[in-house]
């Protein structure tokens, strides 16, 4: 069976944009409204000599209503099934408490996590804010722009090391 790679993170960080970029199609719904991806969406991804199934988990929200509980459950199922997890955070928003909650949950899962700091749109000297994300405790970070595609090659290289 193809290994599964789950894209995880709080709403609006750019998970679906990254998913679409990596599979080269627009399957996931990109929305300015947080939490709009209601179910897991799968797509094949090929990189170097690897083929894997990428899953857009739709976000882990901490709310208590039925939809949020459902999304959280779906995300947990994807994490359980995954060989490797891409955690996405948003440079512009900075490190949030919800990011830290998710990072902690992922570390408890024991799965390899590759941290993608999204919305680093400008090429060149990385902004100082980038380094704040080391505080999540997930190790190496990969600056990317899901809109432009910058940095996604290095990110995929890191993912493939775990497959
Ligand atoms: P999700 O909720 O995590 O799936 O986030 P979406 O993929 O729906 O994106 C949320 C918003 O962030 C949308 O307005 C996207 O266009 C925007 N966005 C996503 N990636 C980037 C990026 O690399 N740079 C910029 N500037 N905006 C981005
Ligand atoms: Mg989404």
Automatic annotation (TrEMBL):
Keywords: GTP-binding, Hydrolase, Nucleotide-binding, Repeat, Ribosome biogenesis. It comes from the Bacteria. GO terms for molecular function: hydrolase activity. Residues 3-163 form the EngA-type G domain. GTP 1 binds at residues 9-16, 56-60, 118-121. GTPase that plays an essential role in the late steps of ribosome biogenesis. Belongs to the TRAFAC class TrmE-Era-EngA-EngB-Septin-like GTPase superfamily. EngA (Der) GTPase family. Associates with the 50S ribosomal subunit. This is GTPase Der. It comes from Allofournierella massiliensis. The lineage of its organism: Bacteria, Bacillati, Bacillota, Clostridia, Eubacteriales. The gene is der.
């Amino acid at each position: 069976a193809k290994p599964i790679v789950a894209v995880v993170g709080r709403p609006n960080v750019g998970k679906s944009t990254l998913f679409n970029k990596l599979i080269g199609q627009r399957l996931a719904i990109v929305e300015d409204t947080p939490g709009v991806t209601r179910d897991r969406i799968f797509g094949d991804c090929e990189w170097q000599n690897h083929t894997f199934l990428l899953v857009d988990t739709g976000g882990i929200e901490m709310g208590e209503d039925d939809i949020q509980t459902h999304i959280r459950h779906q995300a947990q199922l994807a994490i359980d099934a995954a060989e490797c997890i891409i955690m996405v955070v948003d440079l512009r928003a900075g490190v949030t408490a919800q990011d830290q909650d998710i990072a902690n949950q992922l570390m408890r899962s024991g799965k390899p996590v590759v941290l993608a700091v999204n919305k680093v749109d400008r090429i060149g000297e990385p902004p100082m804010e980038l380094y704040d994300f080391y505080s999540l405790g997930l190790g190496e970070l990969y600056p990317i722009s899901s809109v432009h595609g910058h940095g996604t090659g290095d990110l995929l290289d890191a993912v493939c090391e775990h497959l």
